[in-house]
Amino acid sequence: MSGRTDTDQYVIVDLRREWARRPFLTFWRPDFAGYAYPLSWAGDYTKAVVVEKDEYLTRRRYSVATGKYTGRWERFAVLRSIVEAIATTPPPGQIDGNAGPVVVRNKKNRDYLIANRLQLPPAVRIRKAWTVHVARWDEGDGCILYGPSASTVRAKVQRDVDNVSFADITVRRCKEKDISLPAPDGIALGLTPKERHALLHAHGSTCGDVMKAGFRDYYYTDRTNPVLCSLVEKGLMRKSDRGWEEGNVYFFTTDAGKHCANSLTPEYNP
Q1: DSSP code for 61
Q2: SS3 content of the chain, % helix, strand, coil (to 5)
Q3: Cβ-contact 28, 41 below 8 angstroms
Q4: What angle do CA 258, 262, 268 make, to 5 degrees?
Q5: How much is the pTM?
Q6: Distances (CA, A) of 252 to 191, 194, 202, 221, 236
Q7: Are 144 and 177 in contact, with CB atoms under 8 Å apart?
Q8: Contacts 24+ apart (CB under 8 A), 225-229
Q9: How buried is residue 261: exposed, middle or buried, by Cβ count under 10 Å (0-12/13-18/19+)?
Q10: Which of 7, 28, 107, 184 is buried most, with the most CB atoms less than 10 Å from its CB?
C-alpha cells in the first residue's frame, strides 16, 4: 500500500471510547461496512464523500457536560499517505495472515492523526453586520455595513467619507442583521473553474458587489456551450428555448443552482 501519490484517498480513523484498550488504531473498511486494523483492509474515501457525509464520518464524542458532540475527536478522515507514514508491520500472529501495516495505539499517533485530519468547511458562513455611527452626523440608529471586522469597516468609512477621522467613527456588532450564507457542498467543490465562473456570472455574483448577488438568474450564450450544458447535466441550470439570435438561448439557474451559487459567493467585496 505504500508509495501512493493520490491526494484524494482518505481513510476513516475511528477512536471510539470502547476500543481504547485495543493495541492498534481502527479504520473503516470500504463502503462504510465494518472495521479493521490493517490499512490494506481499510477503505479509500474521497474528499467529496467525506464532505457530503458530514457528521457521519467526522464527529467528536458526546459530552454530558454540554449535551452536544463537543468531546474528543472520535472519527475523522486522514489522507492514506499520512497514515502510512506512521504505520508499521504488526507482530506475527496478532492479525489474520499477518496483514498490515497497522498503526500502534498511543497518544503520539492519535495526536498526529488528529492534527492532520481533513477539516470540513463550516455548514454556514456568516456575513457580519455592524452598526456605524459617525460624529457630527444625525444620531438616529446609524447605518448597517458588512465586513469581517470592526477595523475593516471603520477603515472603509474613513476612506469613503471626507474629513472624518478614526476617532469620529463608532462601530458596533449588530448580530440580528447578520446574513447567513451556505458553505460549499460536494457539488460546489467539484465544479471546474469555468463552471464556477459561469454559475456565479449567471447569479450576478461577479458584478463587483456581492450584496447584489442573486439579482439575476440567467446566462445568455450558444445553446451548445459545453460549460453551460455541463451545468445543466448537474442540475444547476436549465436550458430554455428563448433567444433572439440564431443558435443562442437563455440558460436559467435552478433552485439547486442558486443555492450552489450562494455557497460560492464571497462573504464580502474584494
Answers
A1: P
A2: 35, 25, 45
A3: no
A4: 150
A5: 0.57
A6: 17, 17, 8, 11, 9
A7: yes
A8: 225/251, 227/192, 227/194, 227/195, 227/198, 228/198
A9: buried
A10: 28
Say how many residues make up the chain.
270
DSSP for residue 133: E
> How many whole angstroms separate alpha carbon 156 and alpha carbon 186?
35
Q: Which residue has the cell 481533513?
A: 118
Q: Which residues have C-beta within 8 Å of that of residue 93, sequence separation ≥ 6?
A: none
State CA 30 to chain mean position distance.
24
Which residue would you say has higher pLDDT here, 16 or 68?
A: 16
154-177 pLDDT, tens digit per residue, is: 999 999 888 888 888 999 999 999
Query: C-alpha cell of 258?
Result: 442558486
Q: What nine digits make up the cell of 78?
A: 486522514
Q: How far apart are CA 165 and CA 60, in angstroms?
A: 47
